[in-house]
Amino acid sequence: MTSRVAAAFIWACRVELDAPKPGNVHVFAAGHRMTADQFVASADAAAPSLSAKGTRVGARILGAVEATFAAIGANTNLGIILLCAPLAAAADADRTDMRASLVNVLKNLDIEDAVLAFRAIARAAPAGLGRSTRYDVFEQATVSLLQAMVEAADRDRVAGQYATGFADIFDLGVPLFEAAARQHADRKWATLTTYLGFLSAFPDSHIVRKYDAQTAEQVRRTAATHLASLQAATHPAELLPELLAWDAALKAAGLNPGTSADLTVATLFAHRLRTILPSMDNSD
């Protein structure tokens, strides 16, 4: 039977796909040679390894990446897995204070976690990965996974979550999603608010890595305009044509704010875990 942590992960992935996230894959439009159905299949495939009880974070990451490749033969969810594996481990370890538990999980990451995570990242080979002068994922790990992520934090927002105890998730994403969910009955607008919140708060590191900082900054400024419109809207569905037009323009230019989408999934996952943890029992 699927565990509640696995079910929460699948829920987060599917809810994120329901929102019309400009530049990223969603149910309204495919993009970047990927479809929403592939992301659904990826979530289903990755969930068992990612949520496996008593498993180290590195093993969760590698198992989830390998399961994704076995299911669809492509990298659709590396960033999602890197963010959600520590959250799943935190839920496994402590069902009363997940954020404190997460910090403890991160502090206890070791070299073996790094070895397995490096193998997963090299297997996924995300766009613009390149080589690094320190702690290169194509080389043998010599430091803990936390140390490696801290080293990469200034150039990768996913790595930055490890360095800050997932501050973007808990201090920006979750409050933004929960406030928007109270405002909009349709959950996709709360999800979109979260996505645009991340995309307007800082240049998306996936765009920076694949293109440059100037391009990412232009996308960030446009996202801020759309976020302001969404937050002021009484009937957000009226904004859909404008959002989908920007979505098409971004995809035509090959611009995918993938880091903002990954952070959105992690936000939804953290929110869901904090919602269900008090009712979870030892049978899960």
Describe the structure.
The chain is mainly alpha-helical. 68% of the residues lie in helices and 0% in strands. The protein has a single domain, classed as Triphosphoribosyl-dephospho-CoA protein (Orthogonal Bundle). Helix 10 packs antiparallel against helix 12. The longest helix has 20 residues. It is globular and about 50 Å long. The termini are close together. About 2% of the residues have low confidence.
Task: For this entry, give a set of tags.
Triphosphoribosyl-dephospho-CoA protein; mainly alpha; globular; single chain
- Average residue-wise pLDDT: 91
CATH class: Mainly Alpha
What gap, in angstroms, lies between the N and C termini? 9 Å
Write down the secondary-structure element order: HHHHHHHHHHHHHH
Quaternary form? single chain
